[in-house]
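Everyone, study these two lines:
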Amino acid sequence: WHQPKFKMAFRAVLRRLSTSATLSSSRPAQTFVTELKVHSPRDNAIIPTFRVMDAGGKIVSPEAFPKNVSDDTVVDWYKKMVTLNVMDNILFDSQRMGKISFYMTNFGEEATHMGSAAALKSDDIIYAQYREAGVLLYRGFKLSDFMNQCFSNTLDLGKGRQMPVHYGSNALNFHTVSSPLATQLPQATGAAYAIKMRREDRCVMCYFGEGAASEGDAHPAFNFSATLECPVIFFCRNNGYAISTPTSEQYRGDGIASRAAGYGMDFIRVDGNDVFAVYAATAAARKLAVEQNRPVLVEAMTYRIGHHSTSDDSLKYRRSEEIDQHKVDTPISRLNTYLSAKGLWTQEQEKALIDSTRAEVLKEFTAAEARSKPSLTELFSDVYDVKPKHLEEQEQALLAHIKEYASEYPTGNYAK
């Protein structure tokens, strides 16, 4: 700090801050009344949900249909949604067989993935929660990448340091998923502020569930993003449940979108099973974020058809009839109906896609399962540019201990 170059850099940041925003301590203009009234949220109308395509796969708003989305693009979205569904089924079953330790499916939320991912640019930064595998799939994360991560083998980009489904890809601008809930929200705000300071033509997309909005991290994320005018999209997947807690026990207000006004944020509520509506809403949010440095909250209304994770049995807290009711209208079934009605998709194509995708997933699954686990020395790498002495000592102590008690620590399946 005492070096002149650090003082100069700090002063430069202060000058930039003073010229990039108008600071004011004044409050918004007030309107005075003489009648005392206790205001109730029931006095306000429910925020409407934007929709382009209804549950029957019919376009109900042709003027709102994204003009830059071709038939080929829609078919590609559909194929990726089906691929995600097939992969989910196989990996869920594999956990039940003891092949992998943990898994989380995306059943019922595929449109929130594909619609939002398609509306972003490849250099937009993504902070995910844990149920956004389709976003990675859209960006080019290969089936082999998913399998290697779930098996924590030598080709796992995270080198076996994370639980399954905690994906990440530096090349795809997708920050690694972390288990603690909602930590990604303030991190996304900070990244968006950095983008603003650098005057970069991109934004940050932050995914989270409605349950995460109850976490303490949500408040500073929303408030700082608004007061600092950060180019960030907060994309809430309101799927009805925070693990076992239904929305009726999570909040009394009008969902999550209604909270945006209190922070001075723009907001959109969208039908999360309508891939076209999700795409249009995300595109509009991105335009505001990038062009005007304004945070936008998008609330996608959807339903989590699967269990929260393989550690959960959702039939303990919801009836099977409720799930069956929502299975009638899923993002995949809705888009399938749309494509079939337009003559863009047939039952023969459906069967061929499922069969070929299943074969490909199983091929990568088998290859990933056969690969070795990362070297134990990876426990001590990648934190420091040059490994410090105390870590070297810990590493040598661990290796010596394992060597001394080799019968207690089978390491034949670990890379050297």
About this structure: The chain has 13 helices and eight strands.
